[in-house]
Amino acid sequence: MNKFLIILLTGLLAAPACAADNYTIDPNHTWPVFEVNHLGFTTQRGRFNKSSGRITLDAAAKKGSVDLVIETASIDMGFDKWDAHMKSDEFFNVVLFPTMHFTSDKLVFDGDKVVAAEGNFTLLGVTKPLALTVNNFRCAPHPMNKKPTCGADITATFNRSEFGMTKFVPAVSDEVKISVPVEAIKD
């Protein structure tokens, strides 16, 4: 009888630990894009071609976490000279700060859908709170590889000067809008 009780308790205690699903961010379908106003004339956009990370999701408990790493040297502005300028110490300083990083242990749900993530964003070695808006959240079997997959469109806005990126502010806007299509495959 004691053996049965121990097995039952072990199973009950282990169940909550297994309730969360782990997902690996698919770098082929996760390309962070940013935009800034340029001299009051246009909205200029760039993207980062390399990102990685993990998402943990416990839909029943309405909890989860995000760990997204963006490689700053993968910046793509459309031509080499502009890429080099953005990689310099005037902007992303990729030699000293090869990554940007968003982490969150607080996902916000509306019913069964994730609608936001509150966490910390690190850029140029400075970490500040950042809230992400999550749109189009969906989890389902991937139609091609048949693996459980979650995806969403994520947006956020921050002031780059708060992270020490002050070159040409305010001519090149302080406000940066970031948009990230994210797909993650269950481990």
Helix content: 10-25%
Compute the number of structural domains.
Answer: 1
* CATH homologous superfamily assignment: Lipid/polyisoprenoid-binding, YceI-like
- Per CATH, what is the topology? Lipocalin
Number of strand elements = 11
CATH architecture: Beta Barrel
Contiguous runs where pLDDT drops below 50 for at least 5 residues: 1-17
What's the average pLDDT? 91
CATH class: Mainly Beta
Strand percentage lies at: over 45%
- Output the helix-strand order: HEEEEEEHEEEEE
Arrangement of strands in the largest sheet: 1-4-5-7-8-9-10-11
What general form does the structure show? globular
Radius of gyration, taken over Cα atoms and rounded to an integer in Å? 20 Å
Structural class: mainly beta
Please summarize the sheet with the most strands. Answer: 8 strands, antiparallel, barrel
**What's the N-to-C terminus distance?**
37 Å
- Helix count, per DSSP? 2
SSE topology sketch:
Layout: H1 2-18, E1 21-25, E2 33-38, E3 42-48, E4 51-58, E5 63-71, E6 75-76, H2 80-87, E7 99-110, E8 113-123, E9 126-141, E10 148-159, E11 175-186
Antiparallel strand pairs: 1-4, 1-11, 2-3, 2-11, 3-6, 4-5, 5-7, 7-8, 8-9, 9-10, 10-11
Describe this structure in words.
With about 190 residues, the chain is mainly beta. The protein has one domain (about 20-185): Lipocalin. Helix content is about 15%, strand content about 55%. The chain has an 8-stranded antiparallel beta barrel.
